[in-house]
């Protein structure tokens, strides 16, 4: 099966669920965020992983949905913390409703995510819940580090990579491992596919950083330049400070200490500095580096070469995506 088939079947399963019930002000925002679209990358990985180990993926649907519900919960709360106006090209939940609704609906989604593990027998339920709890806490760790970095001027690239590992990569890795757990894969294979996802998740987030500055606003689905507006110390910014001349460094420090009503000049000037220092090229090299690391992990995976190739194709698609 190819990625589009996993995606189509998962969306059919998602849309079969009735999200809206009383009180509607709690559940309508959940229905809204879950139906906004998106790549559905994480649940696709859960289904793909289960399929790779058993030749079946339907049993992994509840676990895949748990991953997607949890991921969207984090997006609602992230958007509140970042005061982001757009998500997938539409109003964010806190903009469409209000901040309090966003907080409470997000909380409900976290609980709903756990409930989907109840579809599995006790031994699988326990493994899934243990991995999920570990991952959820790591995502919180990563989010806090992201917040802490906003007020620090000495963040290193290694610290940044650790932050995105926690905030983004561990959930990608867990999505793959959940598929393996549902499929009763052995521990070594489950851990290997987790490591594959960890490196793939780093490549994915670095690609997100690139698209935030240089993506097409019609396809990216978020506000282009959002990280620059929010003074996020991404790889683009940190690498620029490492390689740029003093004048460009001073300009970056100046702009990243500003919160402006009109950010058009700030975005234009910062992206100009990125381009003049070949940062787009350097981040593309880093994306390839983590993608290659992910592919190296696959060599030890105890599945057929054909199945490994399917995982590689997904990784290559992620590396070259524009959304």
Layout of strands and helices, then pairs:
Layout: H1 3-15, H2 24-34, H3 41-54, H4 61-82, E1 86-87, E2 90-91, H5 93-96, H6 99-115, H7 122-149, H8 157-182, H9 187-214, H10 217-220, H11 226-229, H12 235-243, H13 246-255, H14 264-276, H15 279-298, H16 305-319
Antiparallel strand pairs: 1-2
Helix pairs in contact: 1-3, 2-6, 3-4, 3-8, 4-6, 4-8, 7-8, 8-9, 9-15, 12-15, 15-16
Radius of gyration: 20 Å
Beta-strand level of the residues, as a percent range? under 5%
Distance between the termini: 22 Å
Give the oligomeric state of the chains in this entry, treating copies of one chain as homo and distinct chains as hetero: single chain
What topology, given as strand order, has the largest sheet?
Answer: 1-2
Q: Residue ranges: pLDDT <50 for 5 or more in a row? A: none
Percent of residues in helices: over 70%
| CATH-scheme architecture | Orthogonal Bundle
- The computed structural class is mainly alpha
Globally, the shape reads globular
Overall strand count: 2
Number of domains: 1
Q: Say what the CATH topology is.
A: Farnesyl Diphosphate Synthase
Give the biggest sheet: 2 strands, antiparallel
Look at the structure and name the CATH superfamily.
Farnesyl Diphosphate Synthase
Mean pLDDT: 93
Number of helices: 16
Name of the level-1 CATH class:
Mainly Alpha
Order of helices and strands: HHHHEEHHHHHHHHHHHH
């Amino acid at each position: 099966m190819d990625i589009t088939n996993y995606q189509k079947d998962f969306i059919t399963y998602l849309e079969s669920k009735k999200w809206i019930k009383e009180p509607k002000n709690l559940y309508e925002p959940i229905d809204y965020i879950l139906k906004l679209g998106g790549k559905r990358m994480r649940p696709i990985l859960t289904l793909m992983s289960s399929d790779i180990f058993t030749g079946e993926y339907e049993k992994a649907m509840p676990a895949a949905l748990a991953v997607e519900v949890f991921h969207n919960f984090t997006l609602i709360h992230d958007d509140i913390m970042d005061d982001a106006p757009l998500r997938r090209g539409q109003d964010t939940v806190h903009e469409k409703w209000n901040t309090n609704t966003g907080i409470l609906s997000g909380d409900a989604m976290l609980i709903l995510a756990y409930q989907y593990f109840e579809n599995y027998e006790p031994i699988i339920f326990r493994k899934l819940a243990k991995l999920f709890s570990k991952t959820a806490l790591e995502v919180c760790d990563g989010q806090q580090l992201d917040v802490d970095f906003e007020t620090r001027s000495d963040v290193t690239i290694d610290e940044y990579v650790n932050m995105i590992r926690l905030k983004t990569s561990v959930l990608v890795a867990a999505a793959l491992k959940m598929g393996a757990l549902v499929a009763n894969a052995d521990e070594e294979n489950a851990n290997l596919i987790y490591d594959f996802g960890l490196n793939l998740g780093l490549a994915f987030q670095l690609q997100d950083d690139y698209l935030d500055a240089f993506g097409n606003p019609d396809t990216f689905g978020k506000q282009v330049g959002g990280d620059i507006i929010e003074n996020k110390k991404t790889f683009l910014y940190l690498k620029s400070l490492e390689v740029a001349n003093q004048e460009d460094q001073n300009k970056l420090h100046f702009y990243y200490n500003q919160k402006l009503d009109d950010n058009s000049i700030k975005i234009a000037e910062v992206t100009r500095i990125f381009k003049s220092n070949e940062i787009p090229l350097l981040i593309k090299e880093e994306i390839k580096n983590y993608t290659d690391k992910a592919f190296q992990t696959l060599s030890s995976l105890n599945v057929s070469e054909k199945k490994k190739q399917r995982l590689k194709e997904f990784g290559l698609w992620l590396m070259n995506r524009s959304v």
